[in-house]
Amino acid sequence: TAYGLQWTLFRSALAPGEKAGWESPQVWFAHAAVTTPDAHHTAERFARGGIGQAGVTAAPFSAWIDEWEMAGPDLDSLRLTATGADFAYDMTLEAQGPLVFHGEGGFSVKSAEGQASYYYSNPFLEVSGTVTLGGETREVAGRAWLDREWSSRPLDADQTGWDWFALHLP
């Protein structure tokens, strides 16, 4: 069986700055999925910053929301876990190539009005681990892609966003 896995973590600041506890303006949300040729299994998490429910540390690297986590000594060697009502996965990701920086040196312009982000990808990850569906756990291996993008300015009111797609050709 072929599997597709997805793990996404977003952080949005409702106001500038950081405060402790429930006064933190940081809101986190995440999505995890397992796709097979016949089904798409998904789960979501929502959390507040400042109370330890979600966050990121730079070194050693860790990004988490509730029990879901991507962590490792650096971005070259990571462990990724997520669970949903009808799935779970526990994967190891090992970098096999360099980071790819989008735009100019990782600075990706989104509009003439100044919206931009810093953005890089690692399309060269080898992945292995276990996927559990329907109570059955299987060993899996394959390729993975990691993206990281961040900015400090929202889109203008007349912008609806941007579309992108990626192809990973052998």
Structural overview:
The chain has 170 residues and is mostly beta strands. Helices cover 0% and strands 58% of the residues. The chain has no helices and 12 strands. It has strands spanning 4-13, 26-35, 40-48, 54-57, 61-65, 68-74, 77-83, 87-95, 100-101, 107-109, 116-133, 136-150. Strands 4, 5, 6, 7, 8, 9, 10, 11 and 12 form a 9-stranded antiparallel beta sheet that branches. A 3-stranded antiparallel beta sheet has the order 1-2-3, with no helix packed on it. Strand 2 and strand 3 (40-48) form a beta hairpin. The radius of gyration is 17 Å and the shape is globular. 15% of the residues are buried.
In short, what is this structure?
The protein has about 170 residues and is mostly beta strands. The chain is built from no helices and 12 strands. The strands form 2 sheets. Strands 4, 5, 6, 7, 8, 9, 10, 11 and 12 form a 9-stranded antiparallel sheet that branches. Strands 1-2-3 form a 3-stranded antiparallel sheet, with no helix packed on it.
List the helices and strands and how they pair.
Blueprint: E1 4-13, E2 26-35, E3 40-48, E4 54-57, E5 61-65, E6 68-74, E7 77-83, E8 87-95, E9 100-101, E10 107-109, E11 116-133, E12 136-150
Antiparallel strand pairs: 1-2, 2-3, 4-5, 5-6, 6-7, 7-8, 8-11, 9-11, 10-11, 11-12
